[in-house]
Amino acid sequence: MKKAILLMTMILFVSGTITLNAYAASQSVNVSYKTYGSANGRSNGKTNGVWHYLRNGKYGYLKITSKTGAGKTYASLYRSVVGPDKKFGTVRTSKGSHKFSGKLNKTSGSYYLICYGGKSSVTIHIKVKLHD
Q1: How far apart are CA 15 and CA 17, in angstroms?
Q2: I want to staple 56 with a disulfide (CB 3.0 to 4.6 A). Which of 21, 80, 87, 107 is the partner?
Q3: What is the pLDDT of residue 26?
């Protein structure tokens, strides 16, 4: 009886851990920036200290749930490394799901987004979910 209870507890613990890890690689992000008169505003996750955990051997996906502000906007995915940071592609931030072109090459919490674009003198708000 004790062995059965112990076994059931271990199965539930392992199942909970696996489920937790599956969701750990998906993060919601709210991006906001002003473009000013030059239309070259941007939001830099590295500068703002907003890091994301993604896994090796997968592709990064960005699901845009909402966007306000006029003009075409884009998001680029990077991983911070010694020297120039590694870029994994750029996608347009229109509503829907978008795949970055580069395959992720390390399981790490040092991935970040740079969002940019839009018409001049507008404030851009983008709600996204980043996952692998």
Answers
A1: 5
A2: 107
A3: 74
What size, in residues, is the chain?
Answer: 132
Q: Note whether 127 and 115 are within 8 A (CB).
A: no
- Please, what are the domains in the chain? 26-131 (2.60.120)
- From the CA atom positions of the chain, what is the Rg in Å? 19
What is this structure's pTM?
Answer: 0.79
Q: 3-state class of 69 per DSSP?
A: coil
Residue type, 57: G
Q: Are 120 and 36 in contact (CB under 8 A)?
A: yes
Q: What are phi and psi of 41, to 5 degrees?
A: -70, 160
Q: What is the pLDDT of residues 35-67, one digit of tens each?
A: 988 778 899 999 999 999 999 999 999 999 999
